């Protein structure tokens, strides 16, 4: 009986040492401001990674110009990896303008196509989400040889 009770203890110890196999988001430099912001979004990123069957790794650092950068690496289940470096400054809020064509209706009830500009704010977490999604889509859209 004592052997049976020891076996679960060893498997729990193994999970503590190696990390959970279910964890799909890895944040290096966890105690930096960037790491703290990523930790807040980790549960949402975990759900996305599980649904897409990918692993996501974040590494914070400085580039040659001493600017904050964040490297995002996405790996699919076949081992293919896509990486991108984005601005790692968590306080920057960028104004993004997109040019689109939209169908509008004039006062006579006729539809016409107009060129429109749409502006929105791009925060750090939005940049991270957008980059992870772009990298995941690039891995799934690549033709496997």
The ordered string of helix (H) and strand (E) elements is HEHHEEEEEH
Order of neighbouring strands in the sheet with most strands: 1-2-3-4
Mean pLDDT figure: 81
Q: For the terminal residues, how far apart are their CA atoms?
A: 52 Å
Multimerization status:
single chain
Q: Identify low-pLDDT runs.
A: 11-20
Which bin fits the share of residues in helices?
25-40%
- Rg, Cα atoms, Å: 22 Å
Given helix and strand content, the structural type is alpha+beta
Estimate the strand proportion.
35-45%
Q: What is the approximate shape?
A: globular
Number of helical stretches of at least 4 residues: 4
Largest sheet data: 4 strands, mixed
Total number of beta strands:
6
In a nutshell, what does this entry contain?
This protein has 145 residues and is of the alpha+beta class. The protein is built from four helices and six strands; from the N terminus they run αβααβββββα. A four-stranded mixed sheet has the order 1-2-3-4, covered by helices on one side. The chain has a two-stranded antiparallel sheet with strand order 5-6.
